[in-house]
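Proteins fold reproducibly. Next comes an illustrative record:
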Amino acid sequence: MKSIYLKSVKGMKDYFDYDVLIYEYIENIFRKLIKSYSFNEFKFSIIEKSILYNKNFYKLNNNFLNNKMYSFLDKKNVSLSLRPEGTMSCIRIYLENKIFNINNLNKIWYIGPMFRYENTQRGRYRQFNQIGLEIFGSNNLISSLELILIINKFFKILNIEDLFVLEINSIGILKDRQKYINFLNDKLIENKSFFIKLGIDKFDFSLFRNIDNNNINYIKILKNYPNILEFLNKKSIIDFNNLCKNLDKLNIKYIINTNLVRGLDYYNDLVFEWKYKLWKNINTICAGGRYDYLIKSIYNLDIPAVGLSIGLDRLMLILKDNYIIKKKVNKKIDIYIISYYNLDTMLLGLNICENILNSDLCFLKIYHNYFIYKDLSKLILNVIKLNCRIIIIIGKREFLNRKITIKDLYYNNQYYLSIKKNIVNFISSLFKIKN
């Protein structure tokens, strides 16, 4: 078989060894945190009908997702897509099951893989993992504040809050944005040749998201123009000012970035992003905003909403880069059983393992090694490097003498016991000594 067949698909990230432990560590912390806020978990399908994402919600929609989706026809010629994001799946469940009148299901969270056909970069994969939060049914600032508070607390628990900056902005309602777009388009078209001379020729002059362009020259030029906050309606301005005041009261640091917009056109008013300070370009770790009119455009139900998502892959990289995670994840093995001499020793090792895990010591982590090794002493040295507490050896000598060897690495003691002895009680006594 050629080696090319053994390579993963481009953009699909494999996780193993410490990466799996890091993923579980982050997920467990978030699960515990979000449970205290009474959020309900949604587990939705990886495949959705493409029409869920193809619907033109607003005139501004430019098929941002459609161009990046993995879509295909099933046997009945129905277009299906691997989910590119989680919000639409949450809305689909919410509406399909008619649970919008059940108050305790208004706060939702999810975790899992999403898929977008994008250029792969560090921390950006075509299969990527997200944690998401959605709150349906509230259009006041409390729901927005609650989400910001949760993420702020989450980063504090992970001890990484100082590595991020929270950027916020208000993009108003559709009419506000259209006024700003018309103004901006006139300026862009008027100065198109000038922009091209500066090397700014890779953006569409009709798109609202151009204000989020990273070109330095473009950013300098935009500073000479009025920003979007000057085009907002009175209510949007009041709401945004109230949010800022309350963030100040809660001692949550933030920056108002008037160039901040979200990649999906269904957002309105508040948008926000947590950006990692040490990465220059693709540095957004968590982002979200309000989408108060999205459900109404689909189902004609006036259900306001706010949501966010966390890039789990990028968050894992940050924890690893800052050496925060190694002390947190537990790869340590409590008991290491070596029994590969013959089938009888392997079966004895299996029985010892089961007896321990069926007892009050079921919390212990045990590795039963029944694989063939040529050098036992070398294997033991490798086990010691794992910071293991106890090694149980059932080799040739033990088999012939109907004994087992127990090495207590914590106290540097060794015991040679009959197989008839109650091994579980003996192991229990060793751990009690440590306690």
Q: What stands out?
A: Residues 172 and 352 are 66 Å apart (CA to CA). The chain has a mean pLDDT of 86. Residues 18-36 form the longest helix (19 residues).
